[in-house]
Design brief:
single chain, 67 residues, mainly alpha, 3 helices, 46% helix
Length: 67
């Protein structure tokens, strides 16, 4: 589904970018141009990004301790 009609940004694209590491709306705007024209899509784009970021699997960022 199109979220941003002005720049043809879909919910799929937003979820893909979140999976690639985009976490903030500013990053989303920089990568897609989403909500930089009329701005009508901003609430839905923010919600879609937030849900996609929250749904990402947790990544362990520590190294195992060897005995």
């Amino acid at each position: 589904m199109y979220i941003c009609m002005c720049n043809a940004v879909t919910d799929h694209a937003i979820r893909r970018l979140a999976a690639e590491g985009v976490e903030t709306f500013a990053e989303l705007q920089a990568r897609t141009g989403c909500s930089d024209c009329c701005g009508a899509c901003e609430p839905e784009a923010r919600q879609c990004l937030r849900e996609a970021v929250d749904a990402r699997p947790a990544v362990l960022t520590f190294l195992p301790v060897t005995a």
